[in-house]
Amino acid sequence: MDKALSRFLICLLTAGTQLGGLLATQAANSKRPNIIFFLSDDQRADFLGCAGHPFLQTPAIDALAADGVRFKNAFVTTSICSTSRATILTGLWERSHRYTFGVPPMRAELAQGSYPARLRKTGYRTGFIGKFGVSFAGGAQSEMFDSFEPLNRNLFWKKQPDGSLRHLTDIVGDRAIDFVRKFKNGPFCLSVSFNAAHAEDSKRASAFDHYPWPPMENGLYEDVTVPEPRIGRDFWKNLPMFFHNSMHRDRYQWRDTPEKYQDYAKAYFRMITGLDRNIGRVMAELKRLGLDQNTVIIFTGDNGYFLGSRGLSGKWNHYEESLRVPLVIHDPRVPESKRGRVVEEMALNVDIPATIMALAVNGNVPEAYQGRSVLPLVRGAKPGEWRTDFFAEHLFNRFDIPKWEGVRGQRYVYARYFENLPEGEFLHDLEKDPLQLNNFAKDPTYADVLKRMSARCDQLRDAYGGVYSKEKWQAKESKRPAPRRRKN
To answer: pLDDT-derived band of residue 23, with 50, 70 and 90 as boundaries?
Structure first.
C-alpha cells in the first residue's frame, strides 16, 4: 500500500474514532440535566407566596413550587451568609470547614472538593454570578468556575457604560441570561447568588436607602398594611441580658415604631419580588431556548430573618425565624403525578451540594460530603430512614453576636450559648409551645429531656470538629485538620 494512502487511512480512522468519541460524549452530555441554583439573602421560609404569605408576590418561585416540590422543613445549619455559603459550596458543617467572618481563607482542597469543581471534572460548564461571600486559599475560584462574576452590593446601584444606573438584582438577572445563552449546548451548572434582600447596612436614612428595591417594583405594596409580627415587640425583654446587648437589638432601631415597620417591611418585600421577577426572566429564557425540559432549578435562602419578630433584627440565633429557609426544587423530568408536593422531611443547606452532585452524576454523592441528597424526596420516594434532628451552630467571633451550638429535633430544640452559661441554655418543646415562647431548660419536669438533648449536642459537636477554640479557628490553614465525614 502506498505510504501516503496508508497515512491517509490512519488519519481517517483516527478522526473517525475521535469523532465517534466526541459524538458519544455529546450524546451522554445531552442526557445530563442543566442545573441552575438560585440563592437569596436574608429570606426566611414563610416569605413566599406559595408558603402562605398573605400578600407577598413571588409568582416565579410559586410556579416552580406548583410544578415541582417545596420543602416545608428546610433549615440552615448556621444562620449567617458567609458560613452558610461556605457550607453550600463544600457540603460541610461550619465546625468542619471552619469558615466565617474574620478567619483565614478555607483550604484549597475544600475548593477542589466543592460541587462546581467536581462538576467541571465531569464535563459540566460551571458559572457563578452575584454574591460570593467566601474566600479560598490561593484564589481557587479558577478551579471551580468556567465563568466567575462576583457582583456585590455597596451600593446596589451600579453605573452603566452610558452613565445610567442599573439595580444589582436586575444586573444579576442579565448576566444569568447571558450565561445560559453562551452555554446553551450544555450541560451547565449555574449558581446565581442574589444580594437581595439583604439590607444596605450602612444606609439608614430611609426605607429606600436601607432596602433599595429595583425600579420595576416602584409603588408595590403601597396599599397594603403589613401585619405586625406574630411574636410581638416585647418578647426580647424575657431573654437573658446578653441578648439585650446584642446586634439583634442594635439593628432593631430601624423598625422600632409601627410607622417605620410599615415602610421598611414594604421596601424589604419589594426586594424579594424583584429577585423573583429576575428568576422569572431566566425561566423565560430557558423556555425560549428549548432548555426548560432538561434544566433542574433549585431555589433556597442563605439564612432566615427576623424582620422585627420577637423585637429582634437580623438572624444569628437558634429561633425558628433564624434557621428556617425556603427550599423549592423543580425537576421537569419528574412524573407529573409527583409534582406540586410539599415535603415534610427535614432538608438542610448542607444537602444542596450532595443533591446537585446526585443530579449530575447518576446519584453519586462524594464521600466527603456531610449532607445527603434530597433527590429521592423530589422524586416522590419514601426514604426508609431520614434525619430526625440536626446540629446547628454559630461561631462568628464578634462581641455582639453570641456564639452557640445546639440540636433542632422534630419536637425539641436545644441550644447552649456556651460563653454565656448558665443563663444561655435553652430548651423548647415545639409540640406544646410551637412559637418557642418558653424556655424549659430550668423546668424540673424536662430534666431528662434536657440531659438527652445536651448529650446529643455533644455527640454531634464532636463528630463535626469538637469543642470550639478561638485559637484553633484562627490558626493558619496548614495546621487545620481535615474535616471528617459523618452520615446524618
So the answer is: very low
CB burial readout 49-58, b (16+ within 10 A) else e: bbbeeeebbb
C-alpha cell at 138: 490561593
Residue with the three cell numbers 429561633:
319
The phi, psi pair for 43, rounded to 5°, reads: -130, 115
Q: What does each C-alpha distance from 244 to 255, 310, 321 come to in angstroms?
A: 16, 12, 18
The whole-number pLDDT of residue 475 equals 55
Q: What torsion do the CA atoms of 428, 432, 434, 439 make, to the nearest 10 degrees?
A: -30
Please count the residues of the chain.
Answer: 488
* pLDDT per residue as tens digits for the range 157-196: 999 999 999 999 999 999 999 999 999 998 999 999 999 9
Q: Which is more confident, 221 or 385?
A: 221
pLDDT at 165: 95
SS3 395: coil
Q: 3-state DSSP call for residue 7? A: helix
Q: What is the pTM of this model?
A: 0.90
197 contacts 268 by C-beta, under 8 angstroms: yes
Q: C-alpha cell of 150?
A: 462576583
In this structure, the strands spanning 404-409 and 165-167 are unpaired
What 3 state SS string does 185-222 have?
A: CCCEEEEEECCCCCCCCCCCCCHHHHCCCCHHHCCCCC
Which residues face 73 on adjacent strands?
A: 346
Q: What is the pLDDT of residues 73-115, one digit of tens each?
A: 999 999 999 999 999 999 999 999 999 999 989 999 999 999 9
Which 8-state DSSP code applies to residue 243?
H
Render 47-62 in DSSP notation, one character per residue. -SGGGT-SS---HHHH
Q: Which amino acid is it at 233?
A: R
- Which distant-in-sequence residues (6+ apart) come within 8 Å of 153 by Cβ? 131, 168, 195, 198, 200
The single-letter code of the amino acid at 271 is M
Given a contact cutoff of 8 angstroms between Cβ atoms, the answer to whether 304 and 31 are in contact is no
Look up residue 254 and give its DSSP letter: G
